[in-house]
Amino acid sequence: IYSSEKAENCIVTNAKISSHACLACDRLISEVKSFFVIKLNRIKPIDEEAVKLALNCKNVYFFEEGTKNGGIAETFGCMLEERGFSGAYKATAITDSFVEHAPVSELYKKYSLDTDGIYNICTE
After folding, report:
1. Which of 24, 82, 85, 121 has the fewest CB atoms found within 10 Å of its own CB?
2. Is pLDDT at 78 greater than 90 in this prediction?
3. Residues of the chain with pLDDT > 70: what percent?
4. H/E element holding 39?
5. What is the mean pLDDT of residues 95-103?
6. How many C-beta atoms surround the C-beta of residue 77 within 10 A?
7. What are φ and ψ of residue 41, in 5° steps?
């Protein structure tokens, strides 16, 4: 958990993009927006406590550097739905397409997985 888990919006992520999520969270908080970050340290099975924390949020934003179809974000969203989540859920991940080779920073930017991309999606 990064920031206050009592915030009304959360960003869920894992792996290397977690640092971008935390930087985006800091920026959102500095603008008096209520956010925190859940970093999944394990993806199978998904931590039930992480799902419980997200259930209390108005908005859950999941950022994944893997594929959207059949990925962690999709599984997490299903787990929320099965538990009666009534808020909004948005998953940002790689669509079912070929990912060209490029420096990681360029790919993060292209797929909105960098700090600015995460910030922009959370403020739409």
Report:
1. 82
2. yes
3. 100
4. strand 35-40
5. 88
6. 19
7. -85, -15
